Amino acid sequence: MGVDLNLQAELDIIAIGRACIDLNAVEYNRPMEETMTFRKYVGGSPANIAIGISRLGLKAGFIGKLSDDQHGRFIQQYMADAGVDTSHMVIDHEGHKTGLAFTEIKSPEECSILMYRDEVADLFLYPSEVSEAYIKRSKILLVSGTALAKSPSREAALKAVQLAKKNNVKVVFELDYRPYTWESEAETSVYYTLVAQQSDIVIGTRDEYDVMENRQNTKNEKTVNHLFQYSPELVVIKHGVEGSYAYTKSGKIYRGKAYKTKVLKTFGAGDSYASAFLYALIKGKDIETALKYGSASAAIVVSRHSSSEAMPTVQEIEKFISERSEEKVVNR
Amino acid sequence: MGVDLNLQAELDIIAIGRACIDLNAVEYNRPMEETMTFRKYVGGSPANIAIGISRLGLKAGFIGKLSDDQHGRFIQQYMADAGVDTSHMVIDHEGHKTGLAFTEIKSPEECSILMYRDEVADLFLYPSEVSEAYIKRSKILLVSGTALAKSPSREAALKAVQLAKKNNVKVVFELDYRPYTWESEAETSVYYTLVAQQSDIVIGTRDEYDVMENRQNTKNEKTVNHLFQYSPELVVIKHGVEGSYAYTKSGKIYRGKAYKTKVLKTFGAGDSYASAFLYALIKGKDIETALKYGSASAAIVVSRHSSSEAMPTVQEIEKFISERSEEKVVNR
Amino acid sequence: MGVDLNLQAELDIIAIGRACIDLNAVEYNRPMEETMTFRKYVGGSPANIAIGISRLGLKAGFIGKLSDDQHGRFIQQYMADAGVDTSHMVIDHEGHKTGLAFTEIKSPEECSILMYRDEVADLFLYPSEVSEAYIKRSKILLVSGTALAKSPSREAALKAVQLAKKNNVKVVFELDYRPYTWESEAETSVYYTLVAQQSDIVIGTRDEYDVMENRQNTKNEKTVNHLFQYSPELVVIKHGVEGSYAYTKSGKIYRGKAYKTKVLKTFGAGDSYASAFLYALIKGKDIETALKYGSASAAIVVSRHSSSEAMPTVQEIEKFISERSEEKVVNR
Amino acid sequence: MGVDLNLQAELDIIAIGRACIDLNAVEYNRPMEETMTFRKYVGGSPANIAIGISRLGLKAGFIGKLSDDQHGRFIQQYMADAGVDTSHMVIDHEGHKTGLAFTEIKSPEECSILMYRDEVADLFLYPSEVSEAYIKRSKILLVSGTALAKSPSREAALKAVQLAKKNNVKVVFELDYRPYTWESEAETSVYYTLVAQQSDIVIGTRDEYDVMENRQNTKNEKTVNHLFQYSPELVVIKHGVEGSYAYTKSGKIYRGKAYKTKVLKTFGAGDSYASAFLYALIKGKDIETALKYGSASAAIVVSRHSSSEAMPTVQEIEKFISERSEEKVVNR
Questions:
Q1: What is the pTM for the complete model shown?
Q2: CB contact under 8 A, D116 and C102
Q3: In contact, A298 and A266? CB cutoff 8 Å
Q4: Predicted confidence band at A29 (pLDDT cuts at 50, 70, 90)?
């Protein structure tokens, strides 16, 4: 894959960022105003990825901050039960709450999220709470873009990147852009550029790279030419139903197709994609296979109700791929 | 009742303050960590009181601020359907969210609330959004203590009190103390004292009056002697299962007993009490009868799942009173 | 004067609010850009009034908060040396700075102030730092309007008013409106109305009363008719060079003329007016005499470089009045 | 010097960061409480350096934000008169004030500063106000550490670094650590490490490098070994009266001695050092000579009253060096 992992490292991946609560509409295919019941799941991109990677049998850890209440305790228990190492999820003692995402599913094509992200606990992870000894124990550090949205979580994530680079832990940057947490796109662009230039692998949608570049409709070639002047070895750019592209520093380009599936909602596609793609890379599979794993995992999750609990096993992914070897599916 | 209402006024009561969302545990009698589904209701003390009074057949209005999203629209629609005049519920355009209350019912005796109140829309009602012409149209202005917790909602409520007094609209102050929204008890004491001194009727629990006085275990006599030097004509002090006391400026004391009932949860008791008590006063009933209405309404609501949807009709209250004419019930 | 003071009280007046630093242009009659040297004085309306009253031989105290630095220590020493009781000036331990006012004197008619008021120490006086025992020791509590501009100073001032009223200490409200510290005129109006209604004496310029009423060009009669429905016994409305009017609840109206003088700058006129006017009232002089004292004191201060150090003695005021018994002077 | 400058670039240096007001004690050698008069100068490390470099005959520009008031206008005029290009100093329209520094000179050894830095204009430079076209016009971008202390100035400075690197403009990082503007040393360490790793030249005191490393008493060798793994070519570490050391990536070490002089105050030593040191480098002088220029310039400035106006000319520096060719002087 062009990215040499430290195979001695005990953990396969450590994700840093938010672990939140999704409140998914029980009665869906209608406006949220008419939904009267909501089902609780763990959510948040890096939490979903850590859970997804654990579901696939690898060893994931998490660095994050949890509210000191029922929601925080639920998240920690759920992630521990899913096999994630939660020893570095710290408890907030300043009264901050867990972030919430109420999901509205009007139709498979019209999904939206009502977010509660004001002063939430995950944004109050302090740089002093990021441990060099812990990061050293992992092959990969996965940074979620949203962790960069506000101080002090921003500095905690930047410090984690500095420690990873110092200790030869590979850095994967999942752009995960959520506009509501940022002051401006100009601000996002500064930090996305900064971290992308220092990462080994960058994963995002075309739109997210446009935000990073503070420009619109850039060509993929321009994006990767810029990034390959810095640390990145592998850049993945997702184009929704048109599939995704993986570029390597050595000049190779791979295209992954999106599988067609019965979509219940679009949430969770990106997180399931990332977890299966990284799983395959860590397992030493080639990039083409990794792209298939990513697409298959996304296709499975969008057909189910949640983003975290829906994460597939290796058997499910492989069964899906073999059944659909000729098909194309929606992938976001 | 010692309080002369302007009988010409078109609206019986206008409540000012918060209208929020309650998310009540569907699976209860367990810790919230184990509750996976939540049911959505309108909540917030003054909203509950306005809905309760409408349910009893009177004409209620509301001054408040709603988020510009699905939760805000749900609240406005629900209250309008319940008969509340929502013409002065303004929409927030600064991105603030609706306040949330996740209710945990471990047992009928162990209920707690997980609150989302950071920067919520109701606290961003501006004094310029309070209309003198509207307040003039009502017999009573009901101020909820929580509306005083933060600026600019604080100034909006203080202005409403000034306009009510100027226009001979009676002011009812429901102490409704929620510690998490205030900087300190010293701050609460300043504003509670200020508004209580200017109100015609004050309603609260013994604990809430202690917060107002920034002191512990004050005798009711001391509390009412202080307040009767100012505007109040009627002071109601609630003592939980021991019932409630109503004091008049003319020196009369009335005791209301609490009805025993099968308690599902304790939330909503105070709001249902206030709405039925005020209903009776507005209808010209004597204070003893009003205390009975309040207790009966509270007993009915605590046996049901919600605080707003559970509000009883006059028929239900009167049937309850006649059935239990000899009993005593839990009232909070 | 229609205001009965508790003659047993040890202190004549306690002022609550800000004590700051003025940095007055040493080279004046030019734009501040061209002023290279600034002279340091104690400033801030209530501090100036306390110093002015002490200079006149009465006993003044002060409730306020000082920065824990050289400026804070200078203020405390200067006020103590001026005879003010500084035992209730508390030191800030949260890192807040002293407020600053750079004064620009382009010409006697064109004076402006460049203010540093962001997060300054005086606005962080907490209600818990206001002592009932101290307030009881005074005949008069003087509240400066600017103390109401932000929490927690706002609550400290409101609490002081509550304690004064409870203990029969007369409340004087000096409107002292400074737009930069307030969120909006609607907010100012709410608190100015609140405190004015509870005060015994209100002093301000016509413009300041307009802010209180959130209206423009109100007639004095309308203003005083409103206030006399509440606590005020005496209302002073200043009209700049046209002089000032004092209205009593009993229906009397007095006009004070402004003395003509050689004006160096206009700053400090209001504070020197208030201190001499209140001095005369406390000394039992009639209102006409008090108005003269106020005008004379203002005329003396505007001819000098500072606002605090310039405060005149009784001898200076009386000499001035006798010399100018026929003249009219600029008074703001 | 190991740093290849783009000799075609029109400007020699662009500094980014704060331009403020110093208020220096006119009566000194005493506590500030006893100083009654203050003299106004332009201050702030990057402004002083830009002025110093202009005084030496080079072409300096400045990127920063100024208050929309007399102080802001004074700064812009003073810097323009000093020859600095002020075309990219933008005016704040959000009401922020100019930062202030009151200097206390108790004795030449006991100098302290009373800072006004809350919400000051220079910290509100937005990344969108940093122009790539402008940065391209310079040989060097000088970043002052304090510009990184708060958003959005932090993002503006980070963006400037990204644009400089992209356009082959050399980056000089002057650590300029001021504790009061930062949340924590952990936060400072993250950003100092980030920018130092991306700079070509880093200049600071031993104490400032300790803050960067979030460690105490590190050996210089450890510091430079770390930095030379990244972009830096030249690292200058200052040790006060013991002089300064310059390390090059190629392994050379140079020691500069401090000149003995009659010290009036210690302020301004670092800024005058940096401007003369960079002047010499830009002029193509060797590092040993540059260290002498830096020390001489510092020695001259600490013997004078201000930091900006005191900046020496080339003739003064060269005369000083030739006169003191054998001496050692205090340099901070």
A1: 0.94
A2: no
A3: no
A4: very high
